[in-house]
Amino acid sequence: MNTVPNPIPPSDPAARELLRLADQCVKCGLCLPHCPTYAQTRDEGDSPRGRIALIQGWASGQLVWNAALAAHLEGCLGCRACERACPSLVAYGRLIDGARACRQAQRPRWQRWWSRRRLETVSDAVQVRRLVGLLARLRGAGALAWLGRLAPSRLAVYLRLARVIGTPSPASAVPSVTMAGDAVELFVGCTQEGLQGGAVMAARALLARLGVRARIADESLCCGALLRHAGHPEAADRRRARVAEVHAGRTLVGFSSACVGELREHPGLAGTAELCAYLDALVWPETLRLRPAPLRVLVHEPCTHRTLLGGNAAVHRLLGRIPGVVLIGLGEQASCCGAAGTYMLERPGMARALFADQLAAIRAAAPELIVTTNLGCALQLAASLREAGLEIAVEHPVELLARQLHPPLEA
């Protein structure tokens, strides 16, 4: 049975905070050309300005939560492209996350628990590694293709990602190494080792060549971003606070732009570095050489790297060290690929529509390899390219760098 939550009482502190944030918006509309969902639907309710107006109506008690309101607010990608274009500096990310938290608070207790528990499970590193191992066995037995033919549409959305997830990388079996003296701490989060373990191995190898000791915490940690964007800020805060506690006083370096952006919101983690930016800032010895690679490499820029981390110029500089590499971008189609955390699973239709524009640009650019600094984007790109019949590998930039080390890494 579906229930319609009551309006938020205007006296509620959460409602007052939503209204305070929303009142910064002057409804100028400069954000509209930058919103991926508005570009698809041309519906004002799917624009930042429209969503802010809906939040104002709901928080002031003029609107009740219904299917139409939910479709507009839950349909937001959270890419925050609008924030970069806003002359009034509206904190749209805090606003949409706050609205979702208020919505969760109005749901029945069991629904809140189920929503939170699902996300806690998929953002648990141990569970992720087990799932990847299971998927590898199913794929090896030909079961994924069989399931794909029989699966309902909801399950099929998950299977499309399962087909592009490789077998668990040896990185997931590499224990953390405690070293004497200071060491850089690699934040692998809840999914990096299980879903893109090759990047972890590559980073450790490259850092070693650069004379940097690297370690990974024994404890499985998560930045909490998925929980926060789904309306569970308390659970997200606990996870992020634990990261700050474990890595206190250390240099923390993250692989995924989304995780780094989330961690930096915590006062104790404001100095968290993104891996490519960290590598770019190091002094590279003249003896460290990279072998030539005559490749056309498309550098995909995740929304989180563009909006939260200030752009990926460091990625271009790093890959520019490889002789022969030709770096290309998406040009005017450099918008959201449709991943957006769990968005690609919950709203696959919109996710596919968002990627369609990029697909045309990718076909025209004809890259031999695509690199991206966000794991969710990597999965969305790989799955979408496979569906389109394009055999283009997608990986983290550090994997290409490590592969070109001279002398090469031992097999």
TrEMBL record:
It comes from the Bacteria. It is an enzyme of class 1 (oxidoreductase). GO terms for molecular function: 4 iron, 4 sulfur cluster binding; glycolate dehydrogenase activity; metal ion binding. Keywords: 4Fe-4S, Electron transport, Iron, Iron-sulfur, Metal-binding, Repeat, Transport. It catalyses: glycolate + A = glyoxylate + AH2; (R)-lactate + A = pyruvate + AH2. Its cofactor is [4Fe-4S] cluster. Pfam families: CCG, Fer4_8. Its EC number is 1.1.99.14. InterPro entries: 4Fe4S_Fe-S-bd (IPR017896), 4Fe4S_Fe_S_CS (IPR017900), Cys_rich_dom (IPR004017), Glc_ox_4Fe-4S (IPR012257), Helical_ferredxn (IPR009051). Binds 2 [4Fe-4S] clusters. Residues 16-45, 67-98 form the 4Fe-4S ferredoxin-type domain. PANTHER family: GLYCOLATE OXIDASE IRON-SULFUR SUBUNIT. Component of a complex that catalyzes the oxidation of glycolate to glyoxylate. This is Glycolate oxidase iron-sulfur subunit. It comes from Marichromatium purpuratum 984.
